[in-house]
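Postdoc handover notes: sequence design on the structure in folder B. Input C-alpha coordinates:
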Protein backbone atom coordinates (compact mmCIF):
# COMPACT_ATOMS: atom_id res chain seq x y z
CA UNK A 1 0.00 0.00 0.00
CA UNK A 2 1.48 3.30 -1.08
CA UNK A 3 0.57 6.40 0.90
CA UNK A 4 1.91 9.92 0.85
CA UNK A 5 3.58 10.99 4.12
CA UNK A 6 0.49 13.03 4.99
CA UNK A 7 -1.84 10.11 4.25
CA UNK A 8 0.34 7.79 6.32
CA UNK A 9 0.15 10.18 9.28
CA UNK A 10 -3.63 10.51 8.92
CA UNK A 11 -3.95 6.73 9.09
CA UNK A 12 -1.43 5.83 11.77
CA UNK A 13 -1.00 8.78 14.14
CA UNK A 14 -2.79 8.35 17.45
CA UNK A 15 -4.54 11.13 19.30
CA UNK A 16 -6.98 13.94 18.66
CA UNK A 17 -6.54 15.10 15.09
CA UNK A 18 -8.15 17.42 12.60
CA UNK A 19 -7.42 16.56 8.98
CA UNK A 20 -8.07 18.86 6.05
CA UNK A 21 -7.78 17.85 2.40
CA UNK A 22 -9.02 18.78 -1.04
CA UNK A 23 -11.26 16.87 -3.41
CA UNK A 24 -9.47 14.01 -5.13
CA UNK A 25 -6.83 13.70 -2.42
CA UNK A 26 -7.84 10.18 -1.37
CA UNK A 27 -9.76 11.17 1.72
CA UNK A 28 -12.24 8.26 1.57
CA UNK A 29 -9.41 5.78 1.22
CA UNK A 30 -7.61 7.35 4.17
CA UNK A 31 -10.75 7.30 6.31
CA UNK A 32 -11.33 3.62 5.48
CA UNK A 33 -7.71 2.75 6.21
CA UNK A 34 -7.72 4.57 9.53
CA UNK A 35 -10.97 2.90 10.55
CA UNK A 36 -9.64 -0.49 9.49
CA UNK A 37 -6.36 0.06 11.34
CA UNK A 38 -8.28 0.80 14.55
CA UNK A 39 -10.55 -2.21 14.01
CA UNK A 40 -7.60 -4.56 13.47
CA UNK A 41 -5.83 -3.25 16.58
CA UNK A 42 -8.91 -3.81 18.72
CA UNK A 43 -9.49 -7.25 17.24
CA UNK A 44 -5.96 -8.42 17.97
CA UNK A 45 -6.10 -6.99 21.50
CA UNK A 46 -9.57 -8.36 22.29
CA UNK A 47 -9.89 -10.90 25.11
CA UNK A 48 -10.36 -14.48 24.00
CA UNK A 49 -14.01 -15.24 23.43
CA UNK A 50 -15.09 -11.66 22.72
CA UNK A 51 -17.45 -11.56 19.76
CA UNK A 52 -16.42 -9.52 16.69
CA UNK A 53 -19.34 -7.19 17.36
CA UNK A 54 -17.57 -6.20 20.57
CA UNK A 55 -14.49 -5.09 18.66
CA UNK A 56 -16.47 -2.97 16.23
CA UNK A 57 -18.88 -1.35 18.67
CA UNK A 58 -16.06 0.53 20.39
CA UNK A 59 -15.34 2.53 17.22
CA UNK A 60 -17.87 5.17 16.17
CA UNK A 61 -17.70 6.57 12.63
CA UNK A 62 -20.06 9.48 11.95
CA UNK A 63 -20.86 10.48 8.38
CA UNK A 64 -22.94 13.35 7.08
CA UNK A 65 -25.48 11.26 5.14
CA UNK A 66 -26.85 7.72 5.11
CA UNK A 67 -25.43 7.32 1.60
CA UNK A 68 -21.93 8.20 2.83
CA UNK A 69 -22.32 5.70 5.68
CA UNK A 70 -23.31 2.92 3.27
CA UNK A 71 -20.40 3.74 0.99
CA UNK A 72 -17.93 3.71 3.87
CA UNK A 73 -19.20 0.37 5.19
CA UNK A 74 -19.01 -1.09 1.67
CA UNK A 75 -15.44 0.15 1.26
CA UNK A 76 -14.39 -1.29 4.61
CA UNK A 77 -16.09 -4.61 3.82
CA UNK A 78 -14.46 -4.84 0.38
CA UNK A 79 -11.01 -4.06 1.79
CA UNK A 80 -11.39 -6.69 4.51
CA UNK A 81 -12.48 -9.31 1.96
CA UNK A 82 -9.49 -8.51 -0.27
CA UNK A 83 -7.06 -8.86 2.62
CA UNK A 84 -8.75 -12.05 3.81
CA UNK A 85 -8.14 -13.63 0.39
CA UNK A 86 -4.51 -12.45 0.37
CA UNK A 87 -3.76 -13.46 3.96
CA UNK A 88 -1.77 -16.61 4.79
CA UNK A 89 -3.90 -19.56 5.95
CA UNK A 90 -3.07 -18.97 9.61
CA UNK A 91 -4.42 -15.41 9.41
CA UNK A 92 -7.60 -16.06 7.47
CA UNK A 93 -9.77 -16.95 10.50
CA UNK A 94 -8.95 -13.56 12.02
CA UNK A 95 -9.91 -11.75 8.82
CA UNK A 96 -13.12 -13.76 8.58
CA UNK A 97 -14.00 -12.62 12.09
CA UNK A 98 -13.12 -9.09 11.04
CA UNK A 99 -15.58 -9.34 8.17
CA UNK A 100 -18.30 -10.25 10.67
CA UNK A 101 -17.26 -7.29 12.81
CA UNK A 102 -17.83 -4.90 9.90
CA UNK A 103 -21.51 -5.83 9.80
CA UNK A 104 -21.87 -4.79 13.46
CA UNK A 105 -19.82 -1.62 13.02
CA UNK A 106 -21.15 1.70 14.27
CA UNK A 107 -20.96 3.57 10.97
CA UNK A 108 -23.80 6.02 10.40
CA UNK A 109 -25.12 9.55 10.74
CA UNK A 110 -25.13 11.59 13.93
CA UNK A 111 -28.92 11.22 13.99
CA UNK A 112 -28.73 7.45 13.76
CA UNK A 113 -26.25 7.30 16.62
CA UNK A 114 -28.36 9.65 18.75
CA UNK A 115 -31.41 7.44 18.23
CA UNK A 116 -29.40 4.40 19.36
CA UNK A 117 -28.09 6.18 22.44
CA UNK A 118 -31.53 7.42 23.48
CA UNK A 119 -33.09 3.97 23.03
CA UNK A 120 -30.43 2.57 25.38
CA UNK A 121 -31.33 5.05 28.13
CA UNK A 122 -35.13 4.89 28.63
CA UNK A 123 -34.93 5.40 32.39
CA UNK A 124 -32.91 8.60 32.08
CA UNK A 125 -34.85 10.05 29.13
CA UNK A 126 -38.37 8.89 29.95
CA UNK A 127 -38.73 7.85 26.31
CA UNK A 128 -40.35 4.68 25.06
CA UNK A 129 -37.39 2.88 23.44
CA UNK A 130 -39.68 2.04 20.53
CA UNK A 131 -40.20 5.71 19.61
CA UNK A 132 -40.56 6.60 15.94
CA UNK A 133 -37.98 8.71 14.13
CA UNK A 134 -39.61 11.10 11.69
CA UNK A 135 -37.94 11.26 8.32
CA UNK A 136 -37.71 14.59 6.51
CA UNK A 137 -40.94 14.04 4.58
CA UNK A 138 -43.03 13.19 7.66
CA UNK A 139 -41.46 16.04 9.58
CA UNK A 140 -42.27 18.49 6.78
CA UNK A 141 -45.94 17.47 6.81
CA UNK A 142 -46.25 17.91 10.58
CA UNK A 143 -44.43 21.24 10.44
CA UNK A 144 -46.71 22.59 7.72
CA UNK A 145 -49.76 21.57 9.76
CA UNK A 146 -48.28 23.19 12.86
CA UNK A 147 -47.58 26.46 11.04
CA UNK A 148 -51.16 26.59 9.74
CA UNK A 149 -52.56 25.91 13.22
CA UNK A 150 -50.37 28.58 14.82
CA UNK A 151 -51.32 31.21 12.23
CA UNK A 152 -55.02 30.38 12.56
CA UNK A 153 -54.74 30.81 16.32
CA UNK A 154 -52.68 34.01 16.18
CA UNK A 155 -54.67 35.85 13.53
CA UNK A 156 -57.55 36.35 15.98
CA UNK A 157 -55.32 38.90 17.76
CA UNK A 158 -53.41 40.46 14.85
CA UNK A 159 -50.12 42.21 15.57
CA UNK A 160 -47.60 44.24 13.58
CA UNK A 161 -46.20 41.21 11.82
CA UNK A 162 -49.53 40.62 10.05
CA UNK A 163 -49.33 44.15 8.64
CA UNK A 164 -45.87 43.49 7.21
CA UNK A 165 -46.34 40.02 5.73
CA UNK A 166 -49.10 38.07 4.02
CA UNK A 167 -50.18 34.69 5.44
CA UNK A 168 -48.29 32.92 2.66
CA UNK A 169 -45.13 34.91 3.42
CA UNK A 170 -45.46 34.11 7.11
CA UNK A 171 -45.82 30.41 6.32
CA UNK A 172 -42.55 30.52 4.40
CA UNK A 173 -40.75 32.54 7.10
CA UNK A 174 -41.92 30.30 9.94
CA UNK A 175 -41.03 27.09 8.13
CA UNK A 176 -37.56 28.50 7.45
CA UNK A 177 -37.12 29.47 11.10
CA UNK A 178 -38.24 26.10 12.45
CA UNK A 179 -35.98 24.25 10.01
CA UNK A 180 -33.08 26.41 11.20
CA UNK A 181 -32.57 24.06 14.12
CA UNK A 182 -30.73 24.75 17.34
CA UNK A 183 -28.99 27.95 16.27
CA UNK A 184 -32.27 29.69 15.39
CA UNK A 185 -33.95 28.33 18.51
CA UNK A 186 -31.17 29.66 20.74
CA UNK A 187 -31.26 33.08 19.06
CA UNK A 188 -35.03 33.48 19.40
CA UNK A 189 -35.15 32.17 22.96
CA UNK A 190 -32.55 34.75 23.92
CA UNK A 191 -34.61 37.74 22.77
CA UNK A 192 -35.85 40.24 25.39
CA UNK A 193 -39.55 40.81 26.02
CA UNK A 194 -39.99 44.38 24.75
CA UNK A 195 -39.13 46.18 21.49
CA UNK A 196 -37.21 48.85 23.42
CA UNK A 197 -35.04 46.25 25.13
CA UNK A 198 -34.40 44.51 21.81
CA UNK A 199 -33.49 47.83 20.20
CA UNK A 200 -31.04 48.49 23.02
CA UNK A 201 -29.49 45.07 22.38
CA UNK A 202 -29.11 45.94 18.73
CA UNK A 203 -27.47 49.25 19.63
CA UNK A 204 -25.01 47.54 21.96
CA UNK A 205 -24.11 44.93 19.37
CA UNK A 206 -23.77 47.58 16.69
CA UNK A 207 -21.44 49.61 18.90
CA UNK A 208 -19.35 46.54 19.68
CA UNK A 209 -19.10 45.69 16.01
CA UNK A 210 -18.38 49.29 15.06
CA UNK A 211 -15.56 49.49 17.62
CA UNK A 212 -14.00 46.30 16.29
CA UNK A 213 -14.26 47.50 12.68
CA UNK A 214 -12.75 50.90 13.51
CA UNK A 215 -9.83 49.30 15.33
CA UNK A 216 -9.21 46.90 12.48
CA UNK A 217 -9.51 49.66 9.88
CA UNK A 218 -7.14 52.02 11.69
CA UNK A 219 -4.56 49.30 12.29
CA UNK A 220 -4.45 48.25 8.64
CA UNK A 221 -1.06 49.02 7.03
CA UNK A 222 -2.60 50.97 4.13
CA UNK A 223 -4.51 53.26 6.53
CA UNK A 224 -1.51 53.76 8.79
CA UNK A 225 0.74 54.54 5.84
CA UNK A 226 -1.74 57.01 4.35
CA UNK A 227 -2.15 58.82 7.66
CA UNK A 228 1.62 58.89 8.20
CA UNK A 229 2.08 60.36 4.71
CA UNK A 230 -0.49 63.04 5.51
CA UNK A 231 1.41 64.08 8.63
CA UNK A 232 4.74 64.02 6.80
CA UNK A 233 3.40 66.34 4.09
CA UNK A 234 1.63 68.81 6.37
CA UNK A 235 4.79 70.87 6.87
CA UNK A 236 5.13 71.30 3.09
CA UNK A 237 1.43 71.50 2.20
CA UNK A 238 0.40 74.96 0.92
CA UNK A 239 -2.70 76.08 2.89
CA UNK A 240 -4.10 77.99 -0.07
CA UNK A 241 -3.90 74.97 -2.39
CA UNK A 242 -7.09 72.89 -2.61
CA UNK A 243 -5.31 69.60 -1.90
CA UNK A 244 -2.89 71.18 0.56
CA UNK A 245 -5.73 72.71 2.54
CA UNK A 246 -7.36 69.29 2.94
CA UNK A 247 -4.04 67.84 4.10
CA UNK A 248 -3.86 70.56 6.76
CA UNK A 249 -7.44 70.04 7.95
CA UNK A 250 -7.33 66.24 8.07
CA UNK A 251 -3.91 66.06 9.70
CA UNK A 252 -5.31 68.25 12.47
CA UNK A 253 -8.52 66.19 12.72
CA UNK A 254 -6.69 62.83 12.69
CA UNK A 255 -3.68 63.08 15.02
CA UNK A 256 -1.54 59.97 15.07
CA UNK A 257 -1.93 59.54 18.83
CA UNK A 258 -5.71 59.95 19.06
CA UNK A 259 -7.79 56.83 19.95
CA UNK A 260 -9.59 55.52 16.84
CA UNK A 261 -13.02 55.63 18.47
CA UNK A 262 -12.97 59.42 18.77
CA UNK A 263 -11.96 60.26 15.19
CA UNK A 264 -14.39 62.23 12.94
CA UNK A 265 -14.57 59.67 10.15
CA UNK A 266 -17.52 61.29 8.37
CA UNK A 267 -15.22 64.15 7.31
CA UNK A 268 -13.38 61.72 5.05
CA UNK A 269 -16.43 61.40 2.81
CA UNK A 270 -16.02 65.07 1.82
CA UNK A 271 -12.50 64.65 0.45
CA UNK A 272 -12.30 66.16 -3.05
CA UNK A 273 -9.31 65.16 -5.14
CA UNK A 274 -9.94 67.72 -7.88
CA UNK A 275 -7.69 70.77 -8.18
CA UNK A 276 -4.30 71.33 -6.63
CA UNK A 277 -1.27 72.85 -8.33
CA UNK A 278 2.12 71.16 -8.40
CA UNK A 279 3.79 74.57 -8.60
CA UNK A 280 2.37 75.43 -5.16
CA UNK A 281 4.08 72.45 -3.54
CA UNK A 282 7.77 72.64 -2.57
CA UNK A 283 8.18 69.03 -3.68
CA UNK A 284 6.31 69.65 -6.90
CA UNK A 285 4.33 66.93 -8.65
CA UNK A 286 5.66 64.13 -6.43
CA UNK A 287 4.34 65.71 -3.23
CA UNK A 288 1.00 66.53 -4.83
CA UNK A 289 0.65 62.95 -6.10
CA UNK A 290 1.56 61.52 -2.68
CA UNK A 291 -1.01 63.79 -0.99
CA UNK A 292 -3.74 62.76 -3.43
CA UNK A 293 -2.97 59.05 -2.96
CA UNK A 294 -3.03 59.37 0.83
CA UNK A 295 -6.33 61.26 0.75
CA UNK A 296 -7.83 58.75 -1.68
CA UNK A 297 -6.81 55.81 0.53
CA UNK A 298 -8.39 57.38 3.61
CA UNK A 299 -11.60 58.28 1.79
CA UNK A 300 -12.08 54.91 0.07
CA UNK A 301 -11.26 52.98 3.23
CA UNK A 302 -13.91 54.97 5.08
CA UNK A 303 -16.48 54.54 2.31
CA UNK A 304 -16.01 50.77 2.30
CA UNK A 305 -17.18 50.77 5.95
CA UNK A 306 -19.52 53.77 5.76
CA UNK A 307 -22.84 51.97 6.13
CA UNK A 308 -21.71 50.48 9.44
CA UNK A 309 -19.86 53.52 10.79
CA UNK A 310 -22.76 55.89 10.05
CA UNK A 311 -25.60 53.59 11.16
CA UNK A 312 -27.93 55.24 13.69
CA UNK A 313 -30.52 52.77 15.02
CA UNK A 314 -33.52 54.12 16.83
CA UNK A 315 -35.68 55.38 13.99
CA UNK A 316 -39.33 54.44 13.57
CA UNK A 317 -38.24 51.79 11.07
CA UNK A 318 -35.99 50.10 13.63
CA UNK A 319 -38.74 50.29 16.25
CA UNK A 320 -41.12 48.55 13.89
CA UNK A 321 -38.48 45.96 12.97
CA UNK A 322 -37.98 45.17 16.66
CA UNK A 323 -41.72 44.65 17.14
CA UNK A 324 -41.94 42.42 14.06
CA UNK A 325 -38.99 40.37 15.31
CA UNK A 326 -40.69 39.75 18.65
CA UNK A 327 -43.96 38.90 16.89
CA UNK A 328 -42.13 36.34 14.77
CA UNK A 329 -40.51 34.88 17.89
CA UNK A 330 -43.96 34.49 19.47
CA UNK A 331 -45.30 32.78 16.33
CA UNK A 332 -42.22 30.54 16.28
CA UNK A 333 -42.95 29.41 19.84
CA UNK A 334 -46.57 28.72 18.94
CA UNK A 335 -45.50 26.62 15.96
CA UNK A 336 -43.12 24.67 18.17
CA UNK A 337 -45.89 24.01 20.70
CA UNK A 338 -48.23 22.66 18.01
CA UNK A 339 -45.41 20.64 16.47
CA UNK A 340 -44.43 19.15 19.84
CA UNK A 341 -48.02 18.09 20.51
CA UNK A 342 -48.30 16.41 17.12
CA UNK A 343 -45.04 14.51 17.66
CA UNK A 344 -46.13 13.42 21.14
CA UNK A 345 -49.35 11.94 19.74
CA UNK A 346 -47.24 9.85 17.35
CA UNK A 347 -44.58 9.07 19.98
CA UNK A 348 -42.07 10.43 17.49
CA UNK A 349 -38.88 12.49 17.46
CA UNK A 350 -37.44 14.42 14.56
CA UNK A 351 -33.74 14.83 13.78
CA UNK A 352 -33.42 18.02 15.85
CA UNK A 353 -35.05 16.28 18.83
CA UNK A 354 -32.57 13.42 18.60
CA UNK A 355 -29.57 15.74 18.68
CA UNK A 356 -30.96 18.10 21.32
CA UNK A 357 -32.05 15.37 23.71
CA UNK A 358 -28.78 13.49 23.31
CA UNK A 359 -26.76 16.61 24.06
CA UNK A 360 -28.90 17.39 27.11
CA UNK A 361 -28.60 13.81 28.37
CA UNK A 362 -24.82 13.70 28.00
CA UNK A 363 -24.37 17.10 29.62
CA UNK A 364 -26.74 16.58 32.57
CA UNK A 365 -26.23 12.88 33.34
CA UNK A 366 -22.57 12.09 34.12
CA UNK A 367 -23.21 8.37 34.54
CA UNK A 368 -24.54 8.11 30.99
CA UNK A 369 -21.70 10.23 29.63
CA UNK A 370 -19.03 8.16 31.40
CA UNK A 371 -20.63 4.92 30.25
CA UNK A 372 -20.49 5.95 26.60
CA UNK A 373 -16.99 7.37 26.96
CA UNK A 374 -15.88 4.02 28.34
CA UNK A 375 -17.67 2.11 25.59
CA UNK A 376 -16.18 4.16 22.74
CA UNK A 377 -12.44 3.94 22.22
CA UNK A 378 -12.40 5.97 18.99
CA UNK A 379 -14.64 8.50 17.25
CA UNK A 380 -14.19 9.48 13.60
CA UNK A 381 -16.23 12.35 12.16
CA UNK A 382 -16.47 13.01 8.45
CA UNK A 383 -17.26 16.56 7.22
CA UNK A 384 -16.64 17.91 10.71
CA UNK A 385 -16.76 21.49 9.46
CA UNK A 386 -20.46 21.03 8.68
CA UNK A 387 -21.49 20.07 12.22
CA UNK A 388 -23.48 22.57 14.26
CA UNK A 389 -22.98 23.61 17.88
CA UNK A 390 -25.16 20.85 19.35
CA UNK A 391 -23.59 18.12 17.23
CA UNK A 392 -20.11 19.25 18.22
CA UNK A 393 -21.17 19.28 21.88
CA UNK A 394 -22.16 15.61 21.55
CA UNK A 395 -18.83 14.71 19.95
CA UNK A 396 -16.88 16.52 22.65
CA UNK A 397 -18.93 14.87 25.39
CA UNK A 398 -18.39 11.40 23.92
CA UNK A 399 -14.64 11.90 23.59
CA UNK A 400 -14.14 13.60 26.94
CA UNK A 401 -12.79 16.76 25.30
CA UNK A 402 -15.34 18.94 27.07
CA UNK A 403 -14.92 17.44 30.54
CA UNK A 404 -12.40 18.60 33.16
CA UNK A 405 -9.91 18.05 34.66
CA UNK A 406 -7.12 18.92 32.25
CA UNK A 407 -4.07 16.65 32.11
CA UNK A 408 -0.65 17.99 33.09
CA UNK A 409 1.27 19.65 30.23
CA UNK A 410 3.52 16.61 29.76
CA UNK A 411 0.58 14.28 29.27
CA UNK A 412 -1.32 15.25 26.14
CA UNK A 413 -4.74 13.66 25.93
CA UNK A 414 -4.09 11.54 22.88
CA UNK A 415 -4.61 7.86 23.55
CA UNK A 416 -8.12 7.47 24.94
CA UNK A 417 -10.28 8.09 23.16
CA UNK A 418 -8.70 8.53 19.73
CA UNK A 419 -11.01 11.24 18.52
CA UNK A 420 -10.33 12.01 14.89
CA UNK A 421 -12.01 15.25 13.84
CA UNK A 422 -11.75 15.63 10.09
CA UNK A 423 -12.11 18.57 7.71
CA UNK A 424 -11.58 17.69 4.06
CA UNK A 425 -11.22 21.11 2.41
CA UNK A 426 -8.33 23.27 1.37
CA UNK A 427 -9.54 26.52 2.85
CA UNK A 428 -9.35 28.42 6.07
CA UNK A 429 -11.70 26.72 8.51
CA UNK A 430 -13.00 28.19 11.76
CA UNK A 431 -13.69 25.42 14.24
CA UNK A 432 -15.20 26.20 17.64
CA UNK A 433 -13.25 24.01 20.04
CA UNK A 434 -14.44 23.14 23.54
CA UNK A 435 -12.00 25.36 25.41
CA UNK A 436 -13.89 28.63 25.01
CA UNK A 437 -12.21 29.94 21.90
CA UNK A 438 -12.31 29.56 18.14
CA UNK A 439 -9.19 28.07 16.60
CA UNK A 440 -8.22 29.17 13.09
CA UNK A 441 -6.76 26.40 10.96
CA UNK A 442 -5.38 27.09 7.50
CA UNK A 443 -3.54 24.36 5.61
CA UNK A 444 -1.49 26.91 3.73
CA UNK A 445 -1.71 25.46 0.23
CA UNK A 446 -4.37 24.97 -2.41
CA UNK A 447 -6.09 21.81 -3.49
CA UNK A 448 -6.74 20.78 -7.08
CA UNK A 449 -9.62 23.23 -7.40
CA UNK A 450 -7.39 26.15 -6.42
CA UNK A 451 -5.61 28.73 -8.58
CA UNK A 452 -3.57 27.70 -11.60
CA UNK A 453 -0.23 26.28 -10.61
CA UNK A 454 -1.47 25.10 -7.23
CA UNK A 455 0.24 22.07 -5.79
CA UNK A 456 -1.40 18.69 -5.51
CA UNK A 457 -3.78 18.12 -2.63
CA UNK A 458 -2.65 16.21 0.41
CA UNK A 459 -4.08 15.64 3.84
CA UNK A 460 -3.04 18.15 6.46
CA UNK A 461 -3.02 17.03 10.07
CA UNK A 462 -3.50 19.39 12.96
CA UNK A 463 -3.21 17.94 16.46
CA UNK A 464 -5.61 19.39 18.98
CA UNK A 465 -3.99 21.31 21.85
CA UNK A 466 -1.87 19.39 24.37
CA UNK A 467 -3.99 20.85 27.13
CA UNK A 468 -7.18 19.25 25.81
CA UNK A 469 -9.11 17.79 28.74
CA UNK A 470 -8.91 14.03 28.95
CA UNK A 471 -11.80 11.72 29.61
CA UNK A 472 -13.32 12.04 33.04
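Designed sequence:
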Amino acid sequence: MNFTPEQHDAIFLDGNLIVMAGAGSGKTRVLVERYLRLLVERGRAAPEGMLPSGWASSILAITFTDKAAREMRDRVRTTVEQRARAAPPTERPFWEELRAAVEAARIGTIHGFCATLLRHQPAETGLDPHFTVLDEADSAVLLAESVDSALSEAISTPTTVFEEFSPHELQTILLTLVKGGSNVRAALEGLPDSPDALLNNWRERLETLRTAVVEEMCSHPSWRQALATLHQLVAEAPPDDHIGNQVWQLAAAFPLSQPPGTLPFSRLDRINLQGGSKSAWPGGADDLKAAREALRTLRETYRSHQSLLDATPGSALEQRAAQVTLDLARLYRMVQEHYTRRKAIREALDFDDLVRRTRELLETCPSVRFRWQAELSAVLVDEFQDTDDEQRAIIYALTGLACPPQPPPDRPATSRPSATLRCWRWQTVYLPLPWGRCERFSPGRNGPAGPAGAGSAHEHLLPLPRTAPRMG
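Context for whoever picks this up: Residues 5-128+353-463 form a domain with the Rossmann fold fold (CATH 3.40.50.300). Don't rerun without checking with the PI first.
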